Each structure stands twice: as C-alpha cells, then as structure tokens.
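Subject: Sanity check before I submit

Could someone independently write out the structure tokens for this chain? I want to compare against mine line by line before I put it in a report. The sequence has 299 residues.
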Amino acid sequence: MLNARSKSLIHLHILVFIWGFTSILGALIQKNSFEIVWFRVVIASGFIATYFLFYKRKLFKVPPKAMPYFILGGLLISIHWILFFHAIKISSVSVTLSVLSSASLMTSLLEPLFYKRRIRPYEVFFGAFVVLGLSMIFKAEQDASLGIYIALLSTLLSVLFTLLNGKLIEHYEATTISFYQLLMGSLALSIWMIFTMEIPEDFFVFENYDALWMFLLASICTAYAFIASVEIMKELSPYTIMISLNMEPVYAILFSIYIFGEKEIMSFNFYIGVMIILVSVIGNGIYKARKSKKTSSNS
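---
Independent answer below. Compare away.
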C-alpha cells in the first residue's frame, strides 16, 4: 500500500493538473483580474463556510492570535492571483505559467530562512536550471516582458504564501486555514473596492459561459484545491510542492494551444526553455527518491 507521503505526492500532481486549468479559466472569463479574484475568493469562502455550518462548525473556532497570520495569508494569495491573471491578460497563458517555474529557486533560497536550516546545494542546482530555462523564455518572448515581470512578482507572493502555510499547518486544520485566508482576502478586496474603486454597472453581469467558468474556478480550482494543497503540507515540504508546480506550465501550455490555437504557439526557444525547466523537475524527483532510498537502507 502507498504510504502517506506517496499519497500526498499523487494528490499534489492532481492539484497541479487542476491549477494548470485555472489559468485557462482566467483567460476565458471576460472580466478583469481584480473582478475575477473578488468573485473567486467570495464564492470559494462561501462554499467552505457552508460546509462548516452543516458538518464541522468547530472549525470556525480559532484563537485571536492566529488572525494576523490568516489576514497576511489572505492578502498574499489575493494579490498573487490578481497579478497572475493580469499577467495572463496582457501576455499569454504560456508565458505566465512558464515564469511560475522560478518558484522553485525562490523557495530554495527562502525556505531555509523560514525553517532555520541550511541551504541544500542540490536545490540551488536544480533551481539554476529553472533560471536558465526562464532566461531563454525571456529572450524568446521579449514583447511580453511586462507580463513576465508581473508574473515574477506574482510567483514571489505565491512562495511566501506557501512558506507561511507550511508553518500554520503545524497548528491549525487545513480547512480552517483555507477558509479564514479566503475570507480575509474577500474582506480586504471588498474594502479596497468600496473605498478606492468605481464599481462598474456590469460588475455582477456574466457574459456567455462566464458564470460556469467562474463556478468551476471558485469551487474545484479554489475551494477544493486550496484546502487540499494546505493539507498535503503535513507530508511534503514547501520546496517539493514548488518544484512540482513546475509541471503546471506544461499542462497549461497544452491546454492553451488546444483551446486558443495560434495565439498560444510560441517560438522554438520558448519550448526549449520549458523543456529545461521540465528536466529540473524530473531531475529533482529522481535525486530526492535516490537520496531517500539510500537514507532508508542505511538506517
């Protein structure tokens, strides 16, 4: 039978597949990035709150000292999503998702600070492959440079969010963390919208299949995936999660080419860069597996 870690790894790759489709939904929905994220966090937090009310009311209870961390998490993930969808709107799904691969290098440098351990040379080594692949993508798609910069900032916020949750999961339930972070994100975006924005008349109007896409985005790609991603942190390190997320561009690029056609077809060097990133994912997985097996045989 599979152990808990193996099950978490399988679950993680299912989530990565779902997240790959998230970018497609963001490109399909005919609303700007702020509106997409507002609906996403409001609907998703509503789903989880309903689940709590009927099945696990005790999960509403958290100590006041946890709230600042939930607020911080809600802000990090909300701004990450806004930048992420904005990068897609001004560049493309393929370019934006390929930039997310830089998360592995960022995590390899930031995780030791959060968890007070030494930097692992092999993490930096495989992260360097990501930088090489990313540089090729940047050179191949210079017209999308603004989208690349925004996607990089979005990625940094995603890494910080993952590191924060890696700490929170040691003390709180995954569903509780997810609910309060989404709720805090909803409140923060609502306050920002009320006091600094002019709400358009068609804010609550959905065109064509937008309502369906938004439902899928908020339910499967957010409420479910959000809780599951925090849950697997009990077994997997933030770096393992981030290096696996490098598969997300592969899924998303295949989806986008099929759905959007020529708009998503990039230059040859772009795909070479993506392949280099893929090699880093596979190489990291093989190295970790061999290292774990060697450690087990020596114990």
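---
OP: Matches mine. For the report I'm noting this point. The two ends are 21 Å apart (CA to CA).
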